[in-house]
Amino acid sequence: MLPNGIIGHLYGPMEGRRNDAFMLTESGLLQQFATFTFREDVGEDAPTEERNFYIFGDPAYGVGPHILSPYAGAGERTEEEGEWNAEMASVRIEVEHGFGIVANTWLFLNASWKMQLYHSPYFDCEPPELKDYFHPAEVESGSE
User: Fold this and answer.
1) Which of 44, 53, 101, 110 is most exposed, with minimal Cβ within 10 Å?
2) Is residue 68 packed enough to be buried (19+ CB in 10 Å), middle (13-18) or exposed (0-12)?
3) Which residues pair with 68 in a beta bridge?
4) In which element (H, E) is residue 103 found?
């Protein structure tokens, strides 16, 4: 989610069994950040952390040249690290709100409870070929 509430990067679809870190790598988002996130108002001699813009990600993403995550180790954090985590939690909540907007706009995306093997009607027929599914007009007219 961008600060203005718009979803700034979409990638997919991906299999549900893939983890977040795998999807982040596959999406190419970090490569785009490596190309486009340099601050123009900071000199080349400044430390890397001052020359780049960052995204704030889930702890599963870790920390890198263009991504930050919350501090780990609840009992081992300094007071400042705990305060930073608390402040950044509001950023993560905005991302969750984005997921909610998508799920409420397209309800079929959030129907995993219906997607259980052997729990839906079975009509004893083969599914259509992929080309027929995506181009039904050609099948109906007989032009292939």
Assistant:
1) 44
2) middle
3) 56
4) helix 79-105
Give CA–CA dist 96/84, Å, rounded. Answer: 19
Does this model's pTM top 0.85? no
pLDDT of 47 above 80? yes
Tokens of 25: 């790598």
Write the DSSP assignment of 19-67 as a string of letters.
-HHHHHHHHTHHHHHHHH-B-TTS-TTS-HHHHB--EE--GGG--BTTE
CB 89 within 8 A of CB 82: no
The predicted-structure confidence for 60-115, as pLDDT tens digits, reads as follows: 888 888 888 898 887 888 999 999 999 988 888 888 888 888 888 888 777 766 66
The domain limits of the chain are 20-113
